[in-house]
Amino acid sequence: MSQDVKSVAIVGTGLVGRSWAVLFAVNGFNTRLYDVNPHAADAALLDIRDMLSDMNVDSESVLARIEATKSFDAALDGVAYVQECAPETVEIKRLVFTQLQTLAAAETILASSCSGIPPDLFMLEGPSPERAIIAHPFSSPHSIPLVEVVPSTRTALKTIKTVYDFLESLGREPILVRKPVHGFGINRIQAAVIAEAISLVRNGVLTPDDADKCLRSGLARRWAFIGPFETMDLNSANGFVEYVRKFGEDYHTTLADMDTQAPWEDATLSKIETEMRRRRPDAEAITLRRRWRDKALAELDDLIDRLA
């Protein structure tokens, strides 16, 4: 990617696309928004204005770098990097990436926000798959630094390095997913935790609120700045292997008793939904809480940076 080009495009302007736009524009990039819905990009600009108002930035200067475009061609004209944020289906992403590889300039990097579909299923049919790659953020990308970099079997090594370095220049913490299993890395870890949390609610062990507390007031307090392996390493005088030898049998007994493969029954989902709507009754309340979350994440990020 040419370092003198300071324009990027976002294709798909839902929540993830809007957050990417904030990240790019805050970092000085002219950012073009495009969506097949002709009104979606303009609506995104209004939400982005609200998002920026919660950040310690010059909102008007950042907004001046974000433009809603009306056509695919206009969005792609002269950009160095495209971040696709279309709906998570193989058919839609295959169509979008075939179009991107056909329409975008030859040197433009084409990245997808895909959260779990292996890249070979939708990136290989266009004329230049070597410049296509997944850069999967963890919502919201402007607030959470982790991004999974997932190449296809046809992605060029140069593309991988360019995207990795670009993400680092944006203050992100990319990781390379070396085998593109379904769900990649972070969503597989998240899926295991969520499945057991739902199981505990279904079996009457915990309420939805107490399941949230297990993470919010327990595991996540440590995992916010050290991961599970380092937690284990620090929780035994002589480190990780000693910890496993002490507690490994207990973990295996617990794992054997888990019920993570059971389907997510409507009755359990309804119980959790009731609790969520008790806390936040409507879409407006959800939006306000999301904005609060992103602001809190920014403050946590600053604290972790100071402690590092």
Helix content: 40-55%
Q: Radius of gyration over alpha carbons?
A: 21 Å
Largest sheet: 8 strands, mixed
Low-confidence stretches: none
Could you give the count of β-strands? 8
Alpha-beta classification: alpha/beta
Through-space gap between termini: 31 Å
* Average of per-residue pLDDT values: 95
Order of helices and strands: EHEHHEHEHEEEHEHHHHHH
Total DSSP helices: 12
Order of strands, widest sheet? 3-2-1-4-5-6-7-8
Brief characterization of the structure:
The chain is of the alpha/beta class and 308 residues long.
Question: What does this protein look like?
Answer:
The chain has 308 residues and is of the alpha/beta class. 52% of the residues lie in helices and 12% in strands. The protein has twelve helices and eight strands. It has helices at residues 15-26, 40-53, 59-63, 72-76, 90-103, 157-169, 186-202, 208-223, 228-234, 240-257, 266-279, 283-307, and strands at 7-11, 30-34, 66-68, 81-84, 109-112, 132-137, 146-151, 173-176. The protein has an eight-stranded mixed β-sheet with strand order 3-2-1-4-5-6-7-8, with helices on both faces. The longest helix has 25 residues, at 283-307. The protein is globular and about 60 Å long. The mean pLDDT is 95.
Task: Please describe the structure with a list of short key phrases separated by commas or semicolons.
eight-stranded mixed sheet, 308 residues
Question: Any chance you could write out the topology, listing elements then pairs?
Answer:
Elements lengths: L6 E5 L3 H12 L3 E5 L5 H14 L5 H5 L2 E3 L3 H5 L4 E4 L5 H14 L5 E4 L19 E6 L8 E6 L5 H13 L3 E4 L9 H17 L5 H16 L4 H7 L5 H18 L8 H14 L3 H25 L1
Parallel strand pairs: 1-2, 1-4, 2-3, 4-5, 5-6, 7-8
Antiparallel strand pairs: 6-7
